Amino acid sequence: MRDAISPSRTTDSAPANRFAALPEAPPGRFCTLYACLTGRPILAGEPSTAPAPTPLREKVIRCLWYDQFLDLGALRTEDGRRLSVHSPGYWNEGAGPDFRNAEVAFDDGPRLRGDVELHVAASDWKAHGHDADPAYARVCLHVTLHNDTGRPFVQHQGRAIPQLAMERSLSRDLEEILASLDPDGYPRVGCGREGACCRSLRAAGRSERWTGRFLDIAGDERILRKAERFARAVVQSTPDDALYEALLEGMGYSANRRGFRKLAAAMPLSLLRKGVPVDVEAGERLLWTQAALLGAGGFLDRAPAAEDAEADAMLADLRARWQRLARAGAPKPLEASDWNLARTRPTNHPLRRAAGISAFVAAHLHTGLCRAMMSAVEEMPLGDEAHKCRRALAHFQRQIEAETQPFWARRTGFAAPCLPRPAALIGLARTTELIVNVVLPLLLSMTREGDRGRLETRLHNIYSCLRPLPENSITEYMKTRIFGDPARADRVVNSMRRQQGLLQLFHDYCESPSATCENCGFLTAIEGFGE
């Protein structure tokens, strides 16, 4: 295994001339030029409870901050300091502060990177319990429409956080701004401001082709870094264990990754292989695997009574199998508190996701999970015929949802009524994410010097064939910062590879607590390499 990709890998040679042309990423391989081009890369709404004179939703306040409808040259905090906003941060759609990793400065002080929380009224900070919530420890600025407390600061566990009251600093009349806003379109459309990278690209005359080539290189870097992490993980286990654990974690989305990690630890692949019979037909193996995962997750013991004969029979069958596994040494089930079900859509319930991934695990449990994925890769053509790649890719994606499950396709739980129409247990978008975030880097980490070229070319063909996933708040933020114009962004970011390049830049520079626009590696590349 130590023939695999090493964390101390060397990089391709970059042009010695600082003003040389940006090199092309070599075809059929994952390019290692990123570090050379960027210099030394940095590794890296709730309702208001206080009375307000203007009955606005908190999301509107977010919009005002995100699009910076402010007189930026005259901003003053409530304690009288001059405020400079170098980046408003990215719109956080999950729990915690409203904007992550904003970049601000007070008076002539250094740029600070931290989170920003917004409210209609200043008193909402304490009313919502943020003063004692550890999730708000990185907040560097509290932004409100108006300050109804009169205090210059809010407190977080004894730390004073400055406040900005926007009502005195708006760029034009509030009613005029509100008339132009469509809050329900945020943060998906018309949001954010162009960044220093956008202005530098324009000033340097860099073309869309140049930007696309750079994002290709950054996208390759993202896969290589993931491969290095898998290479280190496999030293402590096996490739199959690493794949199993990563696939389960991927079923958790953002809310339940911790729960699925605990499930993989409670029901490891070795224990699953001992409990699931080898010499049974595929359907039986699936039921045993499903009983093991759902039982270990606590979903069988806590399941409410089924409401129809089919669901009642399925629940009874899985419970009986789980009880036999438990007598043979299966672990204690996870607690209900291990799962985060708040605001979880029924079709995304972890019970249903566990049932979905059990099909792939059961199909290849005793013959090898990585072997199945490697076989799918071997079907990839080495040529550049896109239609052949897409056909092979479709087969590759079907490996994740290896077997149709009529029962779970129509249900979200044992007691839930049948869905009006079948719904995918995992879905194309999630399987694509798993391929990019788990399968490709893990298999790349397993390649040895003898066969690296052929296998890497196939893996790179898969990566190059993938279309971008639907936008999230991070990719939308990055497209706005880099391109400004949505149409231009869509022309350039036309592949998963380039979309992953956006994420690489975000995590290396925009999200890094120690980075600012002044030492951004992307700006280094823009200024140092031409067409």
Could you give a short description of this structure?
The protein has 531 residues and is α/β, with parallel strands linked by helices.
Descriptive overview:
Helix content is 46%, strand content 8%. It is an alpha/beta fold and 531 residues long. Strands 1, 2, 3, 4, 5, 6 and 7 form a 7-stranded mixed beta sheet that branches. The radius of gyration is 26 Å and the shape is globular. Strand 3 and strand 4 (112-121) form a beta hairpin. The longest helix is centred in the middle third of the chain and has 29 residues, at 208-236. Residues 1-10 and 41-54 have low confidence and may be disordered. Among the domains are: 70-169, no CATH class; 252-425, no CATH class. Helix 6 (208-236) crosses helix 20 (496-510) and helix 7 runs antiparallel to helix 16. It has 21 helices and 7 strands.
